[in-house]
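Hi all, posting the design record for the shared folder.

TITLE: backbone redesign
STEP: 1 of 1
STRUCTURE INPUT:
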């Protein structure tokens, strides 16, 4: 029996390392993929990084040409821009910026996964095998969802993980611990607005860890630092709040929530960890074994409720639950740590041996899906990128101060990043879904710019242009070229 149990843990460790190595190789291939989108319309982030690197501004007036909308917090854009400038990345060759952002997100994800491992191993004394297996499983979920491949979610998740790591230092009553928590929580919010829940989680965690005085210290550091940074950002970017607050007011859409989140999660293996974590969290909250049990159960419940509530709006994704998955493995890991006596330890080892084949199947599915979607046919995708650069070079001399509108595959094309100076409505998904139909911004000048020829060219995949867009007539546009499947229309 002992040999069987030891073998179960040995296989668990081997499985974890195989998964981690395979996922790392997969992410390296993704970095150098020529796909215009590998998760979450990430070319919006590349466009923002290029705009910031070239001095065109990160937050501009969304109601004036070129009608950009940057709804995300600034830190990820600034980090990528700064590193790109230091490394002399050429923004006029956008694939270099794509690779830069993807590599930075990979490094951030590695930091997040290592934080999870150290929380389990060093803070909660979970066995090495279980800690690595949990880390590998979490990494596999991230790679399946794909929202940290080249987005600000990767930076938010790292700050979030470091915040939880700091909170696990329950015996640390020093004032400097509260300062660190304040800095990390500000990092979360400035990475993505979802991080606004982190101060609530910190206060709840400190309360149940019986560190009530630290809550006061934390707030004394957090409030002035955060307010000061917001003032600096508003001073630097007059349209900062217009983009990041007003631009984020998407409508509640229950049909979107059901189709794109609830149904997807119910049909997927990767959502399974949330179920036992939820059951354990409520049981640990009602009958906690320790202060840490109740603290992290409370944090998980608040975080998951927040993720669920924010995911009800249009355009939300399953990526809103990244933080809940991170916490789920902490909750489950702490429970495994408590199984120190027979027969529980025997049962846990048997359960692990039964679980390993399913994890391997899930891992194989993740790699296979990623290969089919993003990695295969690299030369053809590179050719498509070069063709789009050629079309851009064909258009640029004709523009002479006029703008282009892409009605093709705006989320997957490279045009918005190649023609970053001349592309009108670069964040097409945001404008088309929400800010225009919901009247978030005043787009009265958009109709004028299309009808008077300021927006003079349209790129499309169709040889028959629709008669109108957003109620604006396109009758003045006529086809002037068909290049490699891209149809160019002009009103001039």
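Okay, here is what came back for every position:
SEQUENCE:
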């Amino acid at each position: 029996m002992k040999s069987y149990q030891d073998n179960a843990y040995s296989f668990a460790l081997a499985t974890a390392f195989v998964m981690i190595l395979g996922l790392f190789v997969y992410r390296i291939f993704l970095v150098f993929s020529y796909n215009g989108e590998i998760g979450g319309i990430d070319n919006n982030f590349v466009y923002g990084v290029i705009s910031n690197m070239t001095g065109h501004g990160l937050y501009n007036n969304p109601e004036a040409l070129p009608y950009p909308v940057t709804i995300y917090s600034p830190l990820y854009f600034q980090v990528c821009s700064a590193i790109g400038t230091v490394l002399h990345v050429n923004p006029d060759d956008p694939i270099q910026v794509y690779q830069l952002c993807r590599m930075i997100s990979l490094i951030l994800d590695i930091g997040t996964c290592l934080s999870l491992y150290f929380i389990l191993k060093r803070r909660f004394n979970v066995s090495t095998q279980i800690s690595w297996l949990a880390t590998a499983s979490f990494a596999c979920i991230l790679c399946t969802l794909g929202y940290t491949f080249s987005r600000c979610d990767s930076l938010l998740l790292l700050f979030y993980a470091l915040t939880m790591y700091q909170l696990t230092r329950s015996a640390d009553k020093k004032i400097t611990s509260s300062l660190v928590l304040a800095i990390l929580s500000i990092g979360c919010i400035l990475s993505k607005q979802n991080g606004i829940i982190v101060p609530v989680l910190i206060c709840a965690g400190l309360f149940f860890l019986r560190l009530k005085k630290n809550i006061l210290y934390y707030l004394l550091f957090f409030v002035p630092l955060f307010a000061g940074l917001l003032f600096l950002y508003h001073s630097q970017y007059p349209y900062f709040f217009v983009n990041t607050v007003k631009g984020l007011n998407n409508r509640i859409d229950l049909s979107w929530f059901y189709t794109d989140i609830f149904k997807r999660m119910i049909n997927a293996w990767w959502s399974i960890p949330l179920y036992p974590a939820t059951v354990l969290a409520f049981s640990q909250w009602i009958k906690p074994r320790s202060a840490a049990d109740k603290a992290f159960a409370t944090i998980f419940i608040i975080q998951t409720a927040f993720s669920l509530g924010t995911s009800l709006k249009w355009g939300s994704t399953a990526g809103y639950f990244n933080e809940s998955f991170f916490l789920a493995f902490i909750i489950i890991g702490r429970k495994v740590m408590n199984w120190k006596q027979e027969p529980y330890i025997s049962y846990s080892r048997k359960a692990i041996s039964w679980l390993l084949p399913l994890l391997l199947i899930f891992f194989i599915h993740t790699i296979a899906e990623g290969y089919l979607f993003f990695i295969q046919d690299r030369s053809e995708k590179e050719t498509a990128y070069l063709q789009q650069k050629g079309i851009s070079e064909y258009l640029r001399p004709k523009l002479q101060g006029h703008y282009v509108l892409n009605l093709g595959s705006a989320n997957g094309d490279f045009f918005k990043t190649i023609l970053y100076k001349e592309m009108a409505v670069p964040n097409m998904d945001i404008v088309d879904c929400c800010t225009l139909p919901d009247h978030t911004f005043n787009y009265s000048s958009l109709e004028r710019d299309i009808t008077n020829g300021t927006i003079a060219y349209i790129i499309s995949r169709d040889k028959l242009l629709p008669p109108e867009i957003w109620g604006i007539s396109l009758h003045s546009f006529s086809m002037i070229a068909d290049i490699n499947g891209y149809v160019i229309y002009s009103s001039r």
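COMMENT: Residues 26 and 370 are 8 Å apart (CA to CA).
Let me know if anyone wants the other runs.
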